[in-house]
Amino acid sequence: MAAQEVVAQQQSATVPVTGSVRRRVPTGLWFILPFFVLYVAFLIVPVFLGLGISFFNTSLSGGLGEFVGFANYAELFADEAVWDSLWNTVKFTLLSTPPLVVLALVMALLTNNAMPARWLLRLSYFMPFLVPVTVVTTVWSWMFRTDFGFVNGMLEAIGLEKVDWLGQPGTAMISIVITTTWWTIGFNYLLYLAGLQQIPPELYEASAIDGANAWKQFTNITLPLLGRVTGLILVLQLIASLKVFDQIYLLTGGGPNFSTRPILEYVYDMGFTGFRLGYASAISYVFFLIILVFAFIQVRLFSSKEGSGR
Amino acid sequence: MSTARRDVHRVSRRGLLLGGAAFAGATMLGGCGGSVFRGGGKVRYWNLFGGGDGVRMVEMQNAFREQHPEINLEAVTLSWGAPYYTKLAMAAAGGRAPEVAVAHLTRLPQYAEDLLDPFDLDLLAEFDVRPEHFPSVLLEHATYGDKLMAVPLDVHTIVLYVNRPLVEQAGLLASPDALVELSSPEDFLSALDELSEVAGSVALATANDTATLWRCFWTFYRQAGGDIVLPEGGTVEYDRERMREVLEFWLQVFDGKRASATMDYGAGVAAFASGETPLLVNGNWELPTFVTAQEETGKPDFTMVPIPALFGPEPLVFADSHALVLPRQWSRDPETDRSAYLFISSLLKDITWAGGGHVPAYQPLATSEEYLELRPQSNYRGAAEVAQLDPPAWFSGAGSEFENQLGQALFAVYRRTLTPDEGMDQFEAAMNKLLKTPSPV
Amino acid sequence: MSATTTIPTSQRQAARELTGPRIFTPKVGRVLMWIAAAVLAVLWLLPVLWAFDTSLKPESETTVYPPTWIPSRFTAEAYSAVLAQGDVLVWFGNSVIVSTAVTVMTVLTSAWAGYAFSRLPFRGMNILYAITIAGIIVPGNVLVVPLFQEMLALRMVDTYWGIILPQVAAPVMVFILKKFFDALPKELEEAALVDGASRWRIFWQIVMPLSRPILAAVSIFTFIGAWNNFFWPFLVTSDPDLMTLPVGLANVQSSYGLRYAQIMAAAMIAAVPLVVVFIFFQRQIIRGVATAGLGGT
Question: CA-CA to B372 of 20 to 30 Å: which in A128, A136, B137, C128?
Answer without folding.
Answer: B137
